[in-house]
From TrEMBL:
It holds the Pfam family DegT_DnrJ_EryC1. Belongs to the DegT/DnrJ/EryC1 family. It comes from the Bacteria. InterPro entries: DegT/StrS_aminotransferase, PyrdxlP-dep_Trfase, PyrdxlP-dep_Trfase_major, PyrdxlP-dep_Trfase_small. The keyword Hydrolase does not apply. This is Aminotransferase class I/II-fold pyridoxal phosphate-dependent enzyme. Transmembrane segments: none annotated. The keyword Transferase applies. Keywords: Aminotransferase, Pyridoxal phosphate, Transferase.
Length: 378
């Protein structure tokens, strides 16, 4: 059997161990420490956000962003329906109600028209949403300017779930720096990883300082343990942050490698009818192409569906995955209000994520190409 080609696997750069070793040698084996401070600085410098707090997970960052915006039980929070559940779960942690919004076809992300429709309808029903969480799936920026126009018109803060979009930009500005908060993730399959981890970024110094306070059990300033608020244990460890510092040194390389994968697939599918890729709509968009994703129209492929492609590649030990199943189709969120016209449902039906690791080698690309050509030649 051929070795497995993964959808996306960790890819170390070389200096990660140097920072981890430093932490070990200086006995900074704890939450917080010089690597955490260094990693936060790296994130600020890279994204252009004024402040960053390194956390235990992207999910923790979303949870804290909602707390910092004052979201409480019974409040409504708008979110992209087409996403990973971690975008929406923290809304439920707070007893708030997710209001789910469909995608548009160009970026597959939140549709500005459906967003405005939802806001006006929620306001008419007497419950103005407290926040909007927009997601940048597979690294593709959303129509962020249009979304901001709507958010500003109704004075609702925007949270950007950029967990998949570190290195992506819109008009040269990093994703995660357009709204009140940006969320990053360094989980094992993301464009860079710390094994597990996340960050909250913002230009608001006070809110980021407050996020650090909440993430370290909300200890008041006193010699004993004094608490006047509920706290969380969400800070990143100094060991984990060492991996992050090493990874930041190779982030631009990783973006280039993922973009090269996209180019490979674009050429591979150029002469195959019925298969289209998620692409930057115009030069304002810069995607890290975290995962190259395709749509398969089986009425034009001679009956070959996305599931046929997935199963054919699986036989060759090549991992592919259907796109995210929209939250409004998930049993746990099926009762949430949803505003849409079926776009994300069709994406889920016909879409597939292809192996996109930055550590993919030519022989692996050759195997993928051979399997695809074999299937479409039948
Ligand atoms: C990975 C991911 C998250 C969660 O990040 P964790 O670090 O795994 O908690 C949130 N949203 C999206 C869109 C993601 O892909």
């Amino acid at each position: 059997m051929n070795s497995k080609i993964w959808l996306s696997s960790p890819h170390m750069g070389g200096n990660e161990m140097k920072y981890v070793q430093e932490a070990y040698d200086t006995n900074w084996v704890a939450p917080l420490g010089p690597n955490v401070n260094g990693f936060e600085e790296d994130l600020q410098n890279y994204t252009g956000a004024k402040h960053a707090s390194a956390l235990s997970a992207g999910t923790a960052a979303i949870h804290l962003s909602l707390i910092l915006l004052g979201v409480k039980a019974g409040d409504e929070v708008i979110a992209s329906s087409f996403t990973f559940s971690a975008t929406v779960n923290p809304i439920s942690y707070l007893g708030a109600i997710p209001i789910l919004i469909d995608s548009e076809k160009d970026t597959w992300n939140m549709c500005p028209n459906q967003l405005e429709k939802a806001i006006t309808d929620r306001i008419a029903k007497g419950n103005k949403p407290k926040a909007i969480i927009v997601v940048y799936l597979y690294g593709m920026p959303a129509k962020v300017e249009e979304l901001l126009v709507v958010a500003n018109k109704y004075d609702i803060p925007l949270i950007e779930d950029a967990a998949e979009a570190l290195g992506s930009k819109y008009k040269g500005k990093s994703m995660g720096t357009f709204g009140k908060f940006g969320i990053l993730s360094f989980n094992g399959n993301k464009i860079i990883t710390t094994s597990a981890g996340g960050a909250l970024i913002s230009d608001d110094k006070e809110l980021i300082e407050k996020s650090r306070f909440l993430a370290t059990q909300a200890r008041d300033n006193a010699p004993h343990y004094q608490h006047s608020q509920i706290g969380y244990n969400y800070r990143m460890s100094n060991i984990v942050a060492g991996i992050g510092r090493g990874q930041m040194e190779v982030l631009d390389e990783r973006v280039a490698q993922r973009r090269a994968n996209f180019k490979f697939y674009k050429e591979l599918f150029a002469n195959i009818d019925g298969v289209s890729l998620l692409e930057e709509p115009n030069e304002d968009y810069f995607s890290n192409y975290w995962l190259t994703s395709i749509l398969v129209d089986s009425s034009k492929t001679g009956g070959i569906s996305r599931e046929d492609i997935r199963l054919e590649l699986e036989k060759e030990n090549i991992e592919c995955r259907p796109l995210w199943k929209p939250m409004h189709m998930q049993p746990i969120f099926a009762d949430c209000p949803y505003y849409g016209n079926g776009t994300s449902e069709r994406l889920f039906e016909d879409g597939l994520c292809l192996p996109s690791g930055s550590n993919m080698i030519d022989e692996e690309r050759d195997r993928i190409k051979a399997a695809i050509i074999k299937l479409f030649r039948k």
